[in-house]
Amino acid sequence: MYTLYYSPGTASMVVHLALLEIGAPHRLELVDFAKDQQHGTEYLRLNPRGQVPTLVIDGKPYFESAALLMNLAERHPDAKLAPPPGSPLRPDWYQWIAFLTSSLGPVYRSWFYPQDLGSPEHPPFVREALRQKIEASWSVVDAHLAARGPYMLGAEFSGVDLLALMYMRWSRNMLKPVTAWPALRRLADLLRARPSWKRLYEVEGLTEWAS
Ligand SMILES: N[C@@H](CCC(=O)N[C@@H](CS)C(=O)NCC(=O)O)C(=O)O
User: Fold this and answer.
1) Residue 10 beta carbon below 6 angstroms from any ligand 1 atom
2) Is the CB of 176 under 6 A from ligand 1?
3) What pLDDT score was predicted for residue 35?
4) Rounded to whole angstroms, how far apart are CA atoms 183 and 198?
5) How many whole angstroms separate alpha carbon 47 and alpha carbon 23?
């Protein structure tokens, strides 16, 4: 049994999707950002950064969404969220998880949390720089998918698609949402047709960017 501390539509989404894809029994604990629960003493004991997700596995809390995805993929090989160790696509799986996490994760974080950079709102030039960085990373992914898609690893779905999907959704209100790139649009449509996505929307109470 897993316990996922989550907030709807946030970085916990990839972990929630992975649990649904695996079909692993899990309990959800809502961390209410409106009440600042992520900074409460109790939650900080689980996750010292005061962020979601946190996944409790066998009584021990772990954080960082990409690490949790990799851990779940390894614990449930039958779900095929990762190519088996030593197989030709395993290095690609590592590569794209690292690329998405390092190129998009922190930039999106800055985009959505200007207070991390010390101001309630970004000055226009910072906002523009962040937007350009996000778009540049999506251009790399779109070119890759156009050449080797439709999924991140080619013909077959894997867990790295779930990570991409979470980040893709975060672009929905930006000047250039991912759906403006043809190969990214195709990937988004394929993934949004999966039962895990529909279930996640029901459970998390999401509506925007459903399909
Ligand atoms: N690198 C972390 C980022 C986690 C993160 O920034 N989570 C955000 C939601 S998307 C959060 O908890 N925000 C609440 C806050 O910072 O107060 C991960 O991928 O798990």
Assistant:
1) yes
2) no
3) 97
4) 21
5) 25
